[in-house]
Write a structure and sequence with these properties.
Blueprint lengths: L10 E2 L3 E2 L16 H9 L13 E2 L9 E8 L9 E9 L9 E5 L10 H8 L2 H4 L3 E6 L29 H22 L8 H15 L4 E6 L1 H12 L4 E7 L9 H24 L1 H4 L5 H17 L8 H8 L1 H4 L4 H14 L3 H11 L5 H15 L6 H14 L4 H8 L24 E5 L7 H10 L4 E6 L12 H13 L5 E4 L17 H10 L4
Parallel strand pairs: 6-7, 6-8, 8-9, 9-10, 10-11, 11-12
Antiparallel strand pairs: 1-2, 3-4, 4-5, 5-7
């Protein structure tokens, strides 16, 4: 899952991992009958007539064969003759004499734009493999260039926010007012769209794309939340799946409240791994050689920022936003460590503010991603409506995993105030698919390892390739040759087997005065997948 803030569109905990929301009733209006909701999630409706796609050139200097198209689909797939919305698509066409058909890609979120992922995947795959597929990206309903696009309200993440950890009743109340206001803004602005911004509806959009392409089957390559979306599509249309690649796998059994709690614990462990890396490089960062002592200094920095936000921008909540991306991708560690060192050792806040602006600050377009993320998350399954349940669960989890538990709670807390009955997430168990390929790092924070084991059990005949000791989120096509070879072989032949690959080495340290340069593949992929997405 990825959570959309900066370029985030991320998996739950929001899972930023992910989610799916449902089909039925308007937010703030009377919910659809339970039977109708169940039918929408589990049975196919008659598809609306779909026109063929008309592709036009939208080449860039880097991707000279890139093409673009748009497709109209029903807002409500249960009413195929009703209102229609528009999806934005990109394509890198196949060049081989014999094609294996379309390969649809999704970066996760929910809320992530997939248009830029298609050319990246096409260029990252071996040439002979990419040549066999039309690699297709799309902006899911509500996202990016698809129309209409959601954007509930501006300024929700403007600094300096209240401390995420509600040490006082006043701080808790201030955060509650923020999230209630966001939920109400969504209801007021997008009441007509919100009942249809969900994973099942998006999966039906994928089927509409396949139909418009005129392809008897399609292949699918999804990251993070995109793994859940792919599994839902496969559940609805198992006979239409040619290949299925799922990288950094959402736990389909925890959608979504429990998945978020699991993510809190995993992010705390990954943050400790970052601090231990800092301790190993004391010669560069001068923060000590004992990981526990380095951790104490990080929390001392957090406490100091509570009293005096750095640059008038970086308080405790913004500090967590800044360091959370390190849990998604260790290529960011050198920059984050240098900012930590500059503040804690030299008393220089400028690198910390710069790190916040790079990793944590919200871009204007991020309101769209977060709005879609929330809409999908809140409608896909039941969230506790009694705030006392949240409070108790968060304090218990915070006691063992303080790094992001409360930050993540407020990210998802609009779901406590969503004014619609939740839907039930479909069971993705599937015995009717060709073999699927799953890829997972053992220390992934955004989609903890157990989720991949659960998904493998649910997708009969699937294979799991494990990056042993790895902690990044999104592990294929980013520099690990062993993993990349497994993906390429699977896309060539459709054959897959369980395997283990070693993790890539941790990054080298860099000083505060020198910017770190992450691996080209890893940095490019994680820029597309986003973080907190």
């Amino acid at each position: 899952m990825t959570r959309p803030l900066k370029k985030r569109a991320a998996v739950l905990l929001s899972i930023a991992t992910a989610t799916a929301a449902a089909v039925a009733g308007q937010l703030g209006a009377a919910p659809a009958p339970a039977a109708a909701a169940t039918t929408a999630a589990t049975t196919a409706t008659a598809p609306a007539p779909t026109a063929a796609l008309r592709w036009t050139g939208c080449a860039t200097s880097r991707y000279p064969t890139l093409q673009c198209a748009s497709l109209k689909v029903p807002l409500d797939h249960a009413r195929p003759s009703g209102r229609r919305i528009t999806l934005a698509l990109t394509r890198v066409p196949h060049t081989a004499a014999k094609s294996q058909g379309p390969l649809l890609v999704n970066p996760g979120g929910p809320g992530g734009s997939g248009r830029g992922l298609a050319p990246y995947i096409a260029s990252a795959l071996p040439k002979d493999v990419a040549a066999q597929y039309d690699v297709i990206g799309f902006d899911p309903r509500g996202v990016g260039k698809s129309e209409p696009a959601l954007d509930c309200t501006g300024g929700h993440f403007n600094p300096v926010r209240p401390d995420s950890v509600p040490y006082t009743a006043q701080t808790e109340q201030a955060n509650l007012e923020r999230v209630r206001a966001f939920a109400e803004a969504c209801r007021t602005k997008h009441a007509d769209l919100l009942p249809h911004i969900d994973t099942v509806s998006t999966a039906r959009d994928i089927e509409a794309i396949r139909t418009a392409l005129g392809a008897p089957k399609l292949s699918y390559f999804g990251f993070s939340y995109g793994t859940y979306l792919g599994a839902v599509y496969a559940k609805l249309h198992p006979g239409r799946v040619h290949r299925l690649v799922l990288d950094s796998v959402v736990d389909p059994g925890g959608v979504w409240y429990e998945d978020n709690l699991a993510q809190d614990r995993a992010f705390d462990a990954r943050h400790k791994a970052f601090l231990a890396w800092v301790a190993r490089h004391d010669a560069t960062y001068r923060l000590g050689t004992d990981p526990a002592a380095v951790e104490q200094r990080w929390y001392a920095m957090r406490a100091a920022l509570r009293a005096a936000p750095a640059g008038g921008k970086v308080g405790p909540a913004e500090l967590e936003d800044t360091y959370m991306p390190g849990g998604y991708y260790n290529g960011y560690w050198p920059n984050l460590a240098a900012a930590f060192s500059a503040y804690a050792v030299d008393g220089d806040a400028k690198p910390l503010v710069a790190a916040y602006e790079r990793f944590g600050a919200v871009e204007p377009a991020a309101g769209n991603g977060y709005s879609v993320y929330t809409a999908v998350q809140c409608r896909d399954s039941a969230w506790p409506k009694d705030w006392n349940t949240w409070r108790g669960d968060m304090w218990r989890t915070h006691a063992e995993a303080p790094f992001m538990t409360w930050n993540n709670a407020w990210y998802n807390a609009p779901c406590a105030f969503w004014k619609a009955e939740p839907l039930q997430a479909p069971d993705v168990a599937n015995a009717d698919l060709p073999p699927a390929l799953l890829l997972q790092a053992t220390q992934d924070a955004a989609t903890p390892f157990g989720g991949a084991l659960t998904m493998r059990d649910k997708l009969k005949g699937s294979a799991l390739v494990v990056e042993e000791g790895g902690g990044n989120h999104g592990v294929s096509l980013s520099g690990n040759t062993c993993l990349d070879e497994k993906v390429a072989a699977y896309l060539r032949t459709g054959r897959a087997a369980d395997a283990t690959c070693p993790a890539q080495p941790d990054p080298k340290p860099t000083s505060a005065g020198r910017a770190a340069t992450p691996s080209a593949g890893g940095a490019a992929l994680h820029g597309l997948l986003g973080f907190r997405s």
